[in-house]
Amino acid sequence: MTQSPQLSVVVPVFNEQDNVAPLIQEITTALRGRAPSDGGDFEIVYIDDHSRDGTLAALQALKAGVPELRVLHHVTQSGQSTAVRTGVKAARGAWIATLDGDGQNDPADIPKLLAKRAESAPEVKLFAGWRVNRQDSGSKRWASKWANAIRRRMLRDDTPDTGCGIKLFERAAFLDLPYFDHMHRYLPALMQRAGWKTLSVPVNHRPRGAGVSKYNNLNRALVGIADLRGVAWLIRRGKVTAVVER
């Protein structure tokens, strides 16, 4: 691996000790041996959000056999958005692919997102996974359906699924966005607010292999109401101005 890989795969985790090794194996299988411009020049950046199980120990044990792997550790639990931002800030790649650490996202979809980037205009800075065949419980799918409908109505971000963990975006564009807790759920709207275009790409979705979900429908809904108001305010108050050097 070179000092400056073209792609950084960022994976936030909290209490996912049994999902760490299988997911890292899938990431390396999906990306090793590909052309550098097609994801072959990559690093894997795991952010352990102060797990209370053996997640950190499992990651540290894997480093010897996975030279692409880097491990960052939050000394206090800080949440998924902060973990993603920690990983992006530490990343060496100009482009970032994110995955949820529970294994429900398929790393084999990363090359699909890279291929979509190759055929898209340069102003498209975010390629968002779209789970067309979700493998969650009925109640979770129902709650997500209504949450997505309300979000689209309020934010007009033309995105069918913002909760999907697999995304591909430009590092510099992400770091220019306003940061707040839970921002990872609103990346399409925030990118569009910044003047960039976004594209939703159908991806695979799988049942959780091990462990339990860290969210429930109630806490998602309570947090989501405040977040939607805040993001809507940001969009109303945002301004994009073209600049030409004279």
Plain-language structure description:
- With 246 residues, this protein is of the alpha/beta class.
- It has a single domain, classed as Spore Coat Polysaccharide Biosynthesis Protein SpsA, Chain A (Alpha-Beta Complex).
- 38% of the residues lie in helices and 17% in strands.
- It is built from eight helices and seven strands, in the order βαβαβαβαβαβααβα.
- The chain has a seven-stranded mixed β-sheet, sandwiched between helices.
- β1, α1 and β2 form a beta-alpha-beta unit.
- The model has no long low-confidence stretch (mean pLDDT 89).
Keywords:
246 residues; alpha/beta; Spore Coat Polysaccharide Biosynthesis Protein SpsA, Chain A; seven-stranded mixed β-sheet; 8 helices; globular; membrane; lipopolysaccharide biosynthesis; Glyco_trans_2-like; transferase; Nucleotide-diphossugar_trans
